[in-house]
Amino acid sequence: QVQLVESGGGLVQAGGSLRLSCAALGGTFSYIMGWFRQVPGKEREFVAAISRNGAFKKYADSVQGRFTISRDNANAMVYLQMNSLKPEDTAVYYCGSNSRVWYSGRYVSGYDYDHWGQGTQVTVSS
């Protein structure tokens, strides 16, 4: 069973950048990997997903062009580079693993993910 550990969150001013990391411990890392975010009182929101070999990526409209998801399969890591951050990006960010296949299209709902990390807080000040 894979264990996911996020890091890299913090406080940044609007317009700044952060890079989140997610380490996958155990398992084969043969998963779709996704980033989601959540603010209090709201459901977990899709941010980005990447296919097993990194060839395919999907972004939420709200982050398209500002965020980049990537992965390093040799080291079982997935990253989220966040640029041009806005106050509305403030949330707890979670990485998740998804055992489905990319062509199923089932990677934008949190219900399609099997395992989650503990989350890392990102706060963007105006």
Features:
single chain; 126 residues
Walk me through the structure.
There is one protein chain. This protein has strands at 3-7, 10-13, 18-25, 32-38, 45-50, 57-59, 67-72, 77-82, 91-98, 115-116, 120-125. It has 126 residues and is an all-beta fold. Strand 4 (32-38) and strand 5 form a beta hairpin. The mean pLDDT is 96.
Fold blueprint:
Layout: E1 3-7, E2 10-13, E3 18-25, E4 32-38, E5 45-50, E6 57-59, E7 67-72, E8 77-82, E9 91-98, E10 115-116, E11 120-125
Parallel strand pairs: 2-11
Antiparallel strand pairs: 1-3, 3-8, 4-5, 4-9, 5-6, 7-8, 9-10, 9-11
**Helicity level:** under 10%
Largest sheet: 7 strands, mixed
Low-confidence stretches: none
* Strand residue percentage: over 45%
Order of helices and strands: EEEEEEEEEEE
Q: What kind of oligomer do you see? A: single chain
Average predicted confidence as pLDDT = 96
Radius of gyration computed on alpha carbons: 13 Å
Number of β-strand runs = 11
Number of helices: 0
What does the overall shape look like?
A: globular
Could you give the distance between the termini? 40 Å
Structural classification: mainly beta
In a nutshell, what does this entry contain?
By secondary structure, this protein is mainly beta.
